[in-house]
Design brief:
CATH topology of the largest domain: Aminopeptidase
Strand order of the largest sheet: 1-2-3-6-7-8
InterPro entries: Acyl_CoA_acyltransferase, Atat, GNAT_ATAT
CATH superfamily of the largest domain: Gcn5-related N-acetyltransferase (GNAT)
Number of strands: 8
Radius of gyration: 25 Å
Number of helices: 8
Organism: Paraglomus occultum
Order of helices and strands: HEHHEEEEEHEHEHHH
CATH class of the largest domain: Alpha Beta
GO cellular component, one term: microtubule
Bound molecules: acetyl coenzyme *A
Strand content: 5-15%
Enzyme class: transferase
Helix content: 25-40%
GO molecular function, one term: tubulin N-acetyltransferase activity
CATH architecture of the largest domain: 3-Layer(aba) Sandwich
Structural class: alpha+beta
Distance between the termini: 89 Å
Shape: elongated
């Protein structure tokens, strides 16, 4: 995307990292901040259009209020802005392959865009690699906010990432993601405790309403019954009331039987 030379000069390097504090001003916006604003808003708008998004997710206004990092790449001659990559941490509830729920705060890929005229020329790889090094993170330990098919193809090609467990939100976390024992969500413990007693045989996917926004997510080759749900609507953590009560009753009966046998043995007259 073309910008006047003085606007472009706000980006010192071929790949520059913009942080929210770079845009904060007290006594009026500086020339550099004005230039950054023009670049961010134009690239954010182009990204949203390329992804068919209803709202623009990268604007100077939103970025200033965030803790995100925005990587911006120029072409080799430093004459155009070619692409952007926005990352930031988010608290997420994620479910791993075996159904255990974790509460994690991974670095997330929030917006990624390379100008249409420059796609498939290696710019995406260049900016992505710079981000990995700068943020000190491996691609398999990132969470991806509703990646497009092009992005999925990119991740498969360069990092062999393809298989993921469908999540109760818009994020894709690949099977290779390294969950930490400490991150196990407490709600998961509650769910586990309920399992030996209840007769909850309903697959979780059937208890989670589908999330409209997720329908365009590419389906993982390994996940044949991919279904997605909004976090607020998920029933993952709540034990079914009926079976929970039944489980409680079973425990009480067992305890009574145990006490009776301790007192009277197996005398049939008692
Ligand atoms: N169709 C399919 N795959 C594509 C396409 C395309 N039009 N463009 C790039 N790719 C993938 C392919 O794997 C391609 O390898 P190939 O050419 O051998 O098939 C690889 O990316 C090329 O790698 P780069 O040249 O390094 O990537 P590029 O500079 O094209 O950037 C990006 C990749 C950012 C996904 C770019 O294609 C783009 O901006 N797409 C439109 C917007 C988009 O979908 N962004 C991701 C949104 S999801 C999110 O932000 C979390």
């Amino acid at each position: 995307m073309e910008f006047p030379v003085d606007v472009l000069s706000a980006l010192p390097d071929t790949i520059s990292v913009i942080k929210p504090r770079d845009l904060v001003f007290v006594r009026g916006e500086s020339e550099k901040q004005k230039s950054l604003r023009l670049i961010i808003d134009a690239m954010g708008e182009a990204s949203a259009a390329a992804q068919d998004l209803k709202t623009i997710i990268t604007t100077t206004h939103k970025f200033k209020e965030s803790k995100h990092h925005l990587y911006v790449i120029k072409d080799q001659q430093n004459t155009y802005v070619v692409g952007i990559l926005k990352v930031g941490r988010k608290k997420l509830f994620l479910v791993e392959e075996e159904g255990i729920q974790y509460e994690v705060e991974p670095l997330c890929i929030l917006d990624f865009y390379v100008h249409e005229n420059c796609q498939r020329l290696g710019y995406g790889k260049k900016i992505f690699e710079t981000m990995l090094e700068n943020e000190n993170v491996e691609p398999h330990n990132l969470a991806y906010d509703r990646p497009s098919e092009k992005f999925m193809s990119f991740l498969k090609k360069y990092y062999n990432l393809a298989n993921y467990t469908p999540q109760p939100n818009n994020f894709v976390v690949f099977r290779e993601y390294e969950f930490q024992e400490l991150d196990k969500s407490p709600s998961k413990a509650a769910r586990r405790l309920s399992q030996p007693y209840d007769d909850c045989t309903t697959p979780r996917s059937r208890t989670m309403p589908r999330h409209g926004r997720c329908s365009s997510l590419p389906v993982s080759p390994q996940s044949t019954s991919a279904s997605y749900a909004s976090v607020s609507a998920t029933t993952l953590t709540a034990p079914p009331t009926e079976s929970y009560i039944q489980a409680k009753r079973n425990i009480i009966n067992l305890n009574q039987e145990y006490r009776r046998q301790m007192l009277y043995g197996s005398n049939p007259l008692v």
